[in-house]
Every structure is written in C-alpha cells, then in structure tokens.
Input
Amino acid sequence: MPTNEISKIFENFLEKESLFIEKKVLQASYTPEELIHRDEEIKQLAKILAPALRTEKPSNVFLYGKTGTGKTVTAQYTAAEITKISKEKNIPIIVVYVNCKLSRIADTEYRVIAQLAREFGKNIPPTGLPTDEVYKIFFQTIDHEKQLIILILDEIDQLVKKVGDEIIYNLTRINTSLKNSQLSIIGISNDLVFTDHLDPRVKSSLSEEEIIFPPYNAIQLQDILRRRAERAFKKGVINQGVIEKCAAYAAREHGDARRALELLRVAGEVAERNGEQQVTITHIDAAEEKIERDRVIDIVKTQPKQQQTTLFAIFSLYAEKKNVMYTGDVYDVYKTSCKKVGLQPLTQRRVSDIIGELDMLGIINAKVISKGRFGRTREISVAIPQSIKPKIITILQQSLNVD
DNA sequence: GTCAATTCACATGAAAGAGACCACGGTCTAGTG
DNA sequence: CTAGACCGTGGTCTCTTTCATGTGAATTGACGA
Output
C-alpha cells in the first residue's frame, strides 16, 4: 500500500469528528462514581461491613448473581466508601481485591496467596517456594500490625473449581491463628449453585451472610445505559430507540449490564468507522455480530494446537453434513487429522475433556446423552453462527498448516 | 405385555508422571588487588 | 578474596496418561397373563 494512501486514512480519521466524548465510561473496567438500581444491595453490604469501623470482624459475605448484575461494582464501591471513612477516622482497615480468574494471575492456591502477599508489599517469586512457605509469609505480613482486612475474592467459583476449597478453608480459619489482625472475606460468584459442591464447613463459614443480586430488568438497564451514554457520547449522537434496543438485547440475556454497555460502545465504534454522525438501531445489530465474531475468532486463534485439531476434526465432520456427531466419530477424525498435522494424538480420555472445554467456550454444543443399548456419549454440534464458519475454518487451516 | 437384568460407549474421577519453570544454597572459576 | 557462573535439590504448574468406576436407557430374555 502506498504511503500516501495510508496517510490519507489517518487524515480522514482526524477530519472525522469523533462521536465519543469519553469512551472509557463504557468500558468494562470503568467504575461509575454512582451506582443506580443497586441501593438495596449496597445498603445490605454496608450493614454487614459496618462493624469493621469499630474494629470488630465483620461476617464473611457471599455475593451471588449472574454476570453483569453489578456484584463487583457494588463490592468495590462499598469497599471504597468504607476505606474512605476509615482513613478519615484513622481506623486500620485494608481492603484487598483479587480476581481469581482474570488472566491467570491468581488461579491456583499458590498464586492467590502470593498475590495477596504482594498486595501487602511482599515480593513473592512466581514459583519455586513451597506453598506453606507462602502462607507463612502472608500470615506474618498481615499479623505484623493490628488491622482489619477485608478480602474480596471475585469469581471465587472459578478458583474453587480449579483448585478445590482448601484455600477458602485455610483463609476462613486464618483468624484463629492471627493475634493482631483479623480477616473477613467477601466472596463473589456468578454460579448460583456453587456452594452446593463446597465442603459444609467451608460453606457455613464462608456464607455467614448472603446477598443475592437479581438481574436488571430492561427499564433499569435503560437507566444505566442512558446515564453512561450521556457522558460517553456527544449530544444528539444516539438515535431514538437505540438505548431501548440495547437494553432489550441485554435483558434477553439475563440482564447483563456489562454486555449492554459493550453493545452500545461497539455500536458507536461501528458508526464512527463508517463515518456516520449518528448511532442508529442498525448499528446495534452490526455490533452484536461483530462482538460475537471477534469473541469466537479470538478464542479459536488462541487455542493450543491440540484443541485446534480437535475443533478442526469437528468442523470436518460438520462439512460432511453431519449436524450432530458423537465423541467416537470426532476422535476417529481427530486421529487422522493429527497424522496430517504431524501431531502426536492424545488419548480419547483427554480429547473427551477437550470437547468439554470447547463446549464451555461456547464454540460447540456438547450434550451428554444416552443412546441406551448403544452407550453413552456426547452429542456434539457446532454452535457458532453460519456467517463466521468459513472464516473459522480458514483460521484453523492456516494455524495447522493443512487443507 | 411387563419387568428386571444386561450391555454399550463413553463420561467422569483420581492419581500419578513428564517436562517446563523457578528459588535457594553450595561449589567452582576467573578476575581483581 | 570475591563476584558471578554453574550445579543439584526441591518446589509449583500444566498437560497428559493410566487405571478405575459410573451411568442412562435401549435391548434382551424370563416370566406370567
């Protein structure tokens, strides 16, 4: 591409007026200074945490609710308020927030504890130390002076699913061995039945109090979107009905506010890229498709070779007009694909797990069914929209070097 | 026709191994005064 | 004499294999009406 053409693109971009004032308001990481439609939950949580201000240990709390129902924001918001007051009154309260899922920072017992210790300024190597050594360091650090620690464990269900409930058990029991400080836990989970799999002892000590976050309804979502859109977009950019449609889309998916905001942001970006002055309803449809496409492509690209090969096998079978297939079929094709790719085939046991993982990622649907006399297996079908399939297949072929 | 036993084709669990990474402490080596 | 290179040990982490056990309903076959 000639240079002047590129510079033309940039120039054009600069000439076009941005539709946004402050795009970050719509981003997932943004914490608004004022929360709406979560008053009740904030009040509850505040009541539970209030004893901390008298340096009494607050109960451990458990926050439940589906994704995008404001659990994290509520916890962070309330925690911020309490630290503000504690600072004013000089009460030693420390709030630590750990997300157990985000980018593998803290998804093992060792890493969580190490992460916690790091929050208190200790330098813990990423590996190499025995786990109990890290525990010890953490213990000593927090017990160093008299203080009250509120530990927010976000996506705690992910953590427990991966490494078991031992950490939680250890953390809830930590108070008995601490002399100076005390530790309270706020657990956040979007899995509603998560505690059922928990050790009863852990369960009772962790969820001394529970707050359930109901999904937002369409009206509430509209309020939230409007509030944010006012700050994010320039005046008059948002067309009539756009907010409503965004809210309706998200409400359909269990009232996920995060998704609603993302939809609105991407719709804005799409409009901007097309050089249009207004965000209209059609942009939302485009945004929805783009989000889905980006998500799937990103997942497929970042999968390891084995997973990709498995996926490739599934798509190959699908191309043979088999809309549903079973684990055995996939494994057979997978083995021949491995030969083509030059990969050591894994055992069926492992491939079975991989199929389960791909199902979790939402690329395929895999349902365990029993075919009676003919055994039990997974019924597998492809779960991505027709429009992206060719693209995915090319990505797989490129990545695996086959045709 | 009814009902329990059988049977299939995997699912699901648990344990353990391989190989990568890392910290720590001890030993060796080369450079310095 | 000392800083840095180099080892061995012991630890974690991820991915995988091996072995074992579980499972839901179509099928089978005995049984009785």
Summary: DSSP finds 16 helices and eight strands in chain A. Chain A has three domains: 39-212, 217-299, 303-400. Residues 125-129, 326-328, 348-349, 352-353, 356, 368, 370-378 of chain A lie near DNA strand B (CB under 10 Å from a C1'). Strands of chain A lie at 61-65, 93-99, 148-154, 182-189, 209-213, 325-326, 364-370, 376-382.
